[in-house]
User: What shape does this take?
Amino acid sequence: MKNKETKPHWKDKLHEIIYEADTPTGKVFDIVLLIAIIFSIVLVMLESVKSFDIKYHSFLNISEWIITILFTIEYVLRIITVKKPWRYITSFYGVVDLLSTIPKYLSIIFAGTQGLIALRALRLLRVFRILKLARYLGASQHLANALKASRAKISVFLFAVLIACVIFGTIMYLVEGEENGFTNIPKSVYWCIVTLTTVGFGDIAPVTALGQFIAAIIMILGYGIIAVPTGIVSAEYATASKDPNKPPPIDLNSQSCSNCNAKRHKDSAQYCYRCGESLHL
Amino acid sequence: MKNKETKPHWKDKLHEIIYEADTPTGKVFDIVLLIAIIFSIVLVMLESVKSFDIKYHSFLNISEWIITILFTIEYVLRIITVKKPWRYITSFYGVVDLLSTIPKYLSIIFAGTQGLIALRALRLLRVFRILKLARYLGASQHLANALKASRAKISVFLFAVLIACVIFGTIMYLVEGEENGFTNIPKSVYWCIVTLTTVGFGDIAPVTALGQFIAAIIMILGYGIIAVPTGIVSAEYATASKDPNKPPPIDLNSQSCSNCNAKRHKDSAQYCYRCGESLHL
Amino acid sequence: MKNKETKPHWKDKLHEIIYEADTPTGKVFDIVLLIAIIFSIVLVMLESVKSFDIKYHSFLNISEWIITILFTIEYVLRIITVKKPWRYITSFYGVVDLLSTIPKYLSIIFAGTQGLIALRALRLLRVFRILKLARYLGASQHLANALKASRAKISVFLFAVLIACVIFGTIMYLVEGEENGFTNIPKSVYWCIVTLTTVGFGDIAPVTALGQFIAAIIMILGYGIIAVPTGIVSAEYATASKDPNKPPPIDLNSQSCSNCNAKRHKDSAQYCYRCGESLHL
Amino acid sequence: MKNKETKPHWKDKLHEIIYEADTPTGKVFDIVLLIAIIFSIVLVMLESVKSFDIKYHSFLNISEWIITILFTIEYVLRIITVKKPWRYITSFYGVVDLLSTIPKYLSIIFAGTQGLIALRALRLLRVFRILKLARYLGASQHLANALKASRAKISVFLFAVLIACVIFGTIMYLVEGEENGFTNIPKSVYWCIVTLTTVGFGDIAPVTALGQFIAAIIMILGYGIIAVPTGIVSAEYATASKDPNKPPPIDLNSQSCSNCNAKRHKDSAQYCYRCGESLHL
Assistant: This one.
C-alpha cells in the first residue's frame, strides 16, 4: 500500500484538515465551518422577516454570496482530496453539501422569474444546510444503539396509537359534528392526535358534554400510554449500558481514510480497515 | 388424526394462503389485504370531506363497492377454509371482518332513508376496518407482558388521578364560577383532566388570581405524577427482559391450525397443540 | 384477652361486615357502599348542571336524602361496632365519613338562607365523599414505597422548578409587558408554570420576537427536565422491586381489629398485633 | 495553623452562626433568612400588581427598606467573618447577595428619573434574591451526579431536536404561509418548538390540510422522542445508585471553613481539607 504515497503531499494535507479533527488546523477548519453554517442559517431566517429584509436587503444578499462561495470552495476541495470522489458525492453529506450551494446559483439563472413561488421554496432549501451540523453530533453511539434496539417496538406502539386515533377521530366526528369544528374525519383524526399527544392547541375543542367526556377518556389514555415508549427506551438503554457480554467500547477517532473516506478507525489503527490505505502518511 | 387429511386439497391450500404468512402466496395475500384496508380507510375519510365527496362521488362509490366485495370474498373464504367456522365467526377478528362488509349492503336496503343520521353513523362503522390491521401488529409479546404486569398498578394510579380531578374540579367551580366558563362541575372536572394531563386546550382557562394559583398547583402536580406510570412500566419492562427464571422465548411461527384455528405454534411443531390436527398436510 | 369475647355477638358480626372484606356479606356491603358513593358523586355533579337541576329537582333532592340517611346509618354503625370509637372518629376516614353526612342536614337548618354562597360551597363539600373511595385503592404498597423513597428528591426538584419559574416569569413580565397580557409578575409566573409543565393554555402567549425566543428556551428546558422526576421514580421503583435484602412481602388481609381498628394483619394472625385482641371470635 | 486562632472570638462565633447550620443559633439564623427571602419575593411580586401597589404603596416601600437593610447587614457580616473575603465576594452567592441589596439603594440615586424603564428592570433585579434559596436546596448529590452523567447526551439530543425544529419550521412556513400566522421562519420555528415539546399554545395553528398533516407528524415525533431524555436520566440514575465500585457516601456536614470558606467537610474532619485551618476553634 506504500506506493499510494506518491500522490501530491498537499492533497493529503488538505484531506487531513478537511475530513479530520485531530490536528490543530483541522480543528480550526471545523470551527470556521461551524460558524459559517450557523451564520448562514440565521441569514435564511432573517431574510424571511419582511421588515428586516427591506431594511438590510443588500447586506443579506452580499453575506449570502460570501457564504455560498465559501461552501462551494469547501465542496470542491472535498471532492479533490478524496481518492474516490463518487463515493463522497453520492453519500448523505455529499448531497447535503451540494444542496447548500446550488440554490443561490439557480437564483441568478431564474432571475427574471423572481416572483415564482417555486423559487422561494428553492431558496429556502438552503435551510437544509443545518444538516451539515449533523457531522458534529458526534459519538453518541451508546444512545443510537438504545434507539436502534427499541425502534421496532416504538414503531409497533406508534402504529397502535394511530389506529386508536382513527377510531376516536371518527367517533368525535359523529358526536361533535361539523358545527363544532369537526368538519370532516381527517380533521377529527388530526384533533385526536393533537389531544392524545397532550399538545392541545385548542383551535378545535369539544363543545358537547358527550364530546368532552370522550375527550377526557382520550386524554387519560394519552397520559397513561406516554409511559410505554419511555419505558422501552429507558429499559433498552439500561440493558445496553450494562451488558456483560458486550466488548468494551473501542476508542474511535475522527480520522477518515483519504482513499475510501471510511470513518470510525481505532485510535491505534495504521491502515484503513476497509481498503488498506495507510492512514498516517 | 390422519383420516382428516381426506378433505379437499384446495381447502388446505387456501387455508395456508389466508391464515398463514410463511409461504410466498401467503405473503402476497397479506400485502394485498393490507393495501386494501388502508385504501378503504382513506376512502371513508375522504368521503367525509364535503368538497371532495361532491367532486368524486361516483369514484368513491365504485371504489367502495369493489372494496366491500373483496372483503366479502375474504370473509366467505375464511369461513369455508376453517374446520370450525363458528369459532372464527364469534372471534374478535370474525366480528371485525363481518362489520367491514355489512354497512355498505345495509346502505342499499335503507336507500330511501339516506338522510337518516343513524345511517351515516352506520356507514362510518367501516372505519373499524382499521382493526383488521391489528393482525399485523405482530409478536410484541415482550411489550404486552410488561403492560399486563403493570396494568393493575396503572389502573390504581389512574383511579387516584380521577379522584383528584373530581375534587379539584369542584374547587375550581366554586372559585371561578359560571361567569368564567366553569359552568358546572362536570365541565370543571373535564377542565381539570385537560390541565392535569398537560393537554391544555385553553377553551376554558382560569381568570381570577386564586383560580390561576390553584391551576398552577394542579399543573405542577400533573407534571410530577406523570412520572409514576412511566416509572412503573419501565421498571416492569426491565424486570420482564432480564428475569433469569424466565424460559427462553420460543420461536413462534405465523401458522394457524386448519381445524381449530389455534395460533402461536412452535416452529418445530408437527401437530396442533390444541386439537392434535396435523399442521403440515 | 379472652374475657373481651363476652361483648354481644351481633357487634362482632357487624364489625366483620363493615370493616372487613373477607366474608361474602362483607363483600356485598363493600360493593353496595361503592355504588352508593359513586351514585352520590354523580348526583352532586348533575345538581350543578342548571338545565338538569330545574327539570329533575325533586328527584335529585329525594335521592340525596336517601344517600345521606344511608351514610348516616353507616357512620353510626361504624362508631358502635368499634371498641375504641374515638380513635375512629378522629381518624382520616372518620372525618371523611362525618363530612359525607352533615352538609345535607345543615341545609335544613339554614333553609331560609338558601341564597347564601357559603351554603353552596357547603353543599359541595359532599364531593369529598369521593375520598371514601380511597379505602378501595388497595394494597399498592410497592408503588407507595417507591413514591415515599423519591418524595424528598422530587420535592427538591419541584422547588428548583419553582425558583426557575419566578425568575423566568419576571423576565417575561419585563420583555412582554402589560400590553401583551403579562399584566403583573404573579400572572407571568403563572404563565411560566403553564409553559414549563407543557400544559400551554394559550390564554396568554408571547407576542414579541424576544418573548417568543425566551418562551422557546423555557419550553425546551421543560421538555428536558420532565425527564428528572420520571427517572427518579422509575429507578427507585426498580430498586424497591429487586432489593435482595428486603423481606418477602407478607400476605396482608383486609381484616381490622374490632378493639383498636388496626389494619394490615398477617393472614395467619390470630391476635391483633397492636392490642392483642383476638381477631377470629 | 494554630496561630490563626488568635483572631477575635466573636468573628468565629458569627462565622459559625452565618455559614453553618449545625448549631441551634445557626439554624435560627437560617430560618429567619429563609422567611425574609420569601417575604421579599412576595413583596416584589405584589408591587407589580397595580391595584395592590396603589392601595398599599407606603407599606410596600417601608417593608422593602427593612428587607434591604437586613440583607445589607447580612452581606457585611458575611464579608467580615470570612478570612478571605475576596473569594466570597467573587463567588456565585457573593454576587447574588450583593445584587439583593443594591437595586433599592440605586432607586434613591436615580430618584428624579423614576419614570425610566431601565430603572423598573433594575428594581426587578431584586427577584434574583430567590437564588439565595438555592443555598437550601441541599445535598441532593445523588441527583446532581445522574444529571452530570447524562448532561452531554441530553445536550446532543436537544441539539438534534433544534435541527429538526429549524427544518420543520421552514417547511411549515412554506406550506401554511403568512396568511395563516406563519409570518416568517423564526416564528415558524417557534411554533415548531411549541408543538414538538407538546406545549401547544394555539396562538398559531395550522389551517391547511397539508399543514395539519405535517403538524400531526411533528406531534407524534415529539411524543415518541420525549422518551429519550427520560430514558437516559433514569438509566444513569439507576446506574449511579447501584455502582458497586463507588465508595460509600461520606456524611458531609454543613460547616464551612472560616478561612477559605470551603464546604462539604466530613463529619469527623478536624481541619479544613483545602487550607488546613482548624474547623472547631
In short: The mean pLDDT of chain D is 76. The CA atoms of residues 22 and 254 of chain D lie 7 Å apart.
